[in-house]
Amino acid sequence: MKKFNAFISQVLVFVLISAVLTGCGGSTNNTSASTSTTESAASTQEKSSETSAASNQFKDHIEISLALWDINTNWTDGKDAVYNKISKDLNITLKATNLSWDSYGEKINIWAASGSLPDVFSTGALGTKTFSDWVEQGVVKQLPDLSKYPNLNKYMNLPDSQVTKYNGNSYAIPRLCYTDANWWAGDRAILVRKDWMEKLGYTNEPKNFEEFLQMLKDFSTKNPDGTKGVIGITTSQIGACYADWIFFGFSGMSPITNLWYKDANGKYMPSFMAPGTLEGFKALRRMYTEGVLDKDFATIKGDVGFDKFAGGKAGAIFWSTYLDHQRDYVYNKWTKNYPDKEYLDNMTPIHIWPAPDGNRYHFIQPAAWSESYINNNVDDKKLDRILSLYDYLISDEGTELLRYGIKDKDYTKAGDKIAITRPKDPTTGQFKPLADIYPFTAGFPFLVQWGQQITYADPGYNQDILKLGKDNLDWYLKYTKAPAVNLAVTNIITPAKLKFQWFDLVLNDMVKITLGTESVDKMYKDMIDNYNKKGLQEMINEVNAEATKQGIK
Questions:
Q1: Distance between CA 517 and CA 520 in Å, rounded?
Q2: How far is 292 from 296, CA to CA, in rounded Å?
Q3: Whether residue 338 sits in one domain with residue 223
Q4: 134 in Cβ contact with 140 (< 8 Å)
Q5: Residues 6 or more apart from 523 whose CB is under 8 A from it?
Q6: How far apart are CA 186 and CA 467, in angstroms?
Q7: 325 and 233 both lie in a single domain
Q8: Domain range spanning residue 115?
Q9: Environment class of 180 (CB within 10 Å of its CB; exposed 0-12, middle 13-18, buried 19+)
Q10: Among the four residues 40, 273, 534, 553, which has the most C-beta atoms within 10 Å?
C-alpha cells in the first residue's frame, strides 16, 4: 500500500484532513488517525468565521431551501445535534429536498423552467448548453467577491475550480472529488461473488474478455448455490453508465466521459472515436446476445440492480468500489440479506485485462463532475448566509463536524491526531455509521465538495469496506495507467461544444448498439455519421483551435 499511503500525505485543497491510512486498524473503541494541514493555498485553512446567532452578521434568522442527492430529511425533529449546531451557529433553518439519481436532471430543468428552483441545488451541468443558458438567462447567481469567506475563497481559487467560470465570472461551486484524477480508478469497477468464483474453480481473475464472458456464463448456468435464473451481470441505477468499464480493456477510456485524446495526426479527438471503441461495443453486444448481461440493463432504476446482486440473483454488477458506493448500495443490502456471511469472503472486485497495446488502463475524469448553484432570485442577505454556510462547511471545524460528529463526544483531537469514540455496533464490532446517529450527515457533507479522499482516510469507517476499496484502488494505482487524454482540453468551452452534449448521446447509443440487431460495425458508423450531422466536426475543429490558442500541447 506504499503508493496509496504516500499519496495521502500529499493531499491538497479540498481534502482538509489527510489521515495516515495505517491508523485505520485496531480493535479498541478508540481508533486514531493523523491529520495535517499543508502549507499550500489549497489546504491552508484559516479559522472559520465566528458563527454565533448573537453576532450582528447572523442576527436575522434565515430559511434556506436546498436540493441534494441522498440527503436524509429525518433531522428536522430537533434531535440531530450536528444539524442543531449548524442551525444555531449560523441562525438558519434548512429545508431539504432529496434528489433521485434517476431523474434529478429532469426535475431541476422543470424547476428552472417554472421559476421554482430552491435557493441552492446540485447537478452536473458544467460545460453544457444548460449551464450557458442558465447564466445568460439569469437563472443562477454570479458569485460575488469571496474575500469575506476565506475558506471558500481559497477553494474557488484552485485550478480545478476554474471550470465554473463563464466569461471570466464564477456561477457555481464545483464539488471536487479527488486531488489526483488517477484516484477515480476505483469509481469504475465490477464487483463479483468471490465465493461463487472459488466454488467454480476460478482461482485467478479473468485475463481477457473471453475468460470474463465464460465466468459470467458459469455464474448463471453452473450456479454453485443451485439457484435458477441467476443473471451473469447486472448494472447500477444509472443504467448503462457504469458499463463503460468494459471499454478500458479495448480502447483504454470511457466513451461517454468528456475526454480528449490525440490521434495519429496530432489532433484532439473525443473519446468515443478512440481506437478500440468499436470492439468495446461488440463486447457489450456479445454479453447481451449470449445471455449474461441483465436483459433490463437499459431501464434499471432505483435499487433494482443492487437488490439483484446483493440478493444472490446476479453474479456480478457494474459499479464502483469507492467506500460510500459500496456501503450504501452493496454492503448494507448484503449484510441484511446474509447476516451470517462475511462480506470480504463473498465479495471481490475483478480487475481489467490488458488492452490490445498491452497496457492496463483505469477510469479518469476531471476533479469535479458536479457542482452546486445558487438561485439568482436569492437576495443579498440570504446570499451572504449561504456563502457563510459554505465557508464553514469547508473549514477544518465544519469538515470534522460532518465527517466525525460532535467533538469530545464522537471523536477527540490531540494535536493532529483524531480518535473516534462513537459507539460500536455490538454485532459487527464496527463503529456505527455517523449517519445512523446523526441523519443530517447522510448526504449533507457533500453539498460543497465530495471530498472522497477524506473518506478513504476516515479512521472510523467500516474496516471491511475500507479494505476492499483501498486494496482495489491501490492495485489500479500500481498496475494500470491513465489513458493518454488531456484534461485541460476537457475543460475547454466553445459554442459547438456546448451544443454537442455527447454523454447522453453516446450513453443512448451504447444501449441501442447493445440491444440492436444490425451489425455493430454498421451501427457504430451510423452513430458517427449522425453525430457529424449534429455538429461533431465543428466541435472538434473549435476545440483544437482553442487548444492551440491556449497553448495546450
A1: 8
A2: 11
A3: yes
A4: yes
A5: 281, 509, 512, 513, 516
A6: 12
A7: yes
A8: 62-179+368-479
A9: middle
A10: 273
| Domain stops at, among 307, 328, 361 | 361
Shared-domain flag, residues 173 and 296: no
| Helices and strands (DSSP H and E) totals, the chain | 22, 15
CATH number at residue 392: 3.40.190.10
- Helices 502-515 and 277-289: crossing angle in degrees, nearest 10, is 40
- Total count of domains within the chain: 2
Q: Are residues 331 and 406 in the same domain?
A: no
Contacts of 455 (CB under 8 A, 6+ apart): 322, 323, 324, 461
**Residues 511, 505: Cα–Cα separation, whole Å:** 10
Mark whether 272 and 330 lie in a shared domain.
yes
Exposed/middle/buried for residue 129 (C-beta within 10 Å: 0-12, 13-18, 19+): middle
Which residues does 62 contact at the CB level (< 8 Å), separation at least 6? Answer: 91, 92, 93, 381, 382, 385
Helix H or strand E encompassing 371? strand 371-374
Q: What b/e readout covers 83-113, taking b as 16+ CB neighbours within 10 angstroms? A: bebbbebbbbebebeebeeeebeebbeebbe
**Residues 279, 406: one domain?**
no
Three-state secondary structure readout of 273-302: HCCCHHHHHHHHHHHHHCCCECCCCCCCCC
Q: Are 272 and 251 in contact (CB under 8 A)?
A: no
- Which neighbouring-strand residues pair with 173? 372
Evaluate whether 179 touches 41 at the Cβ level (below 8 Å): no
- Model confidence pTM above 0.90: no
Radius of gyration of the chain from Cα atoms? 24
The set of residues, in sequence order, having a beta carbon less than 8 Å from that of 465 and lying 6+ positions away, is 323, 326, 327, 331, 343
3-state class of 372 per DSSP? strand
If you search the block for the grid coordinates 455527447, which residue do you land on?
502
- Gap between the Cα atoms of 537 and 549, Å rounded: 18
**Cα–Cα distance between 531 and 541 in angstroms, integer?**
14
Task: Quote the CA–CA distance of 429 and 29 in Å, as a whole number.
Answer: 9
Residue at grid coordinates 448463471: 220
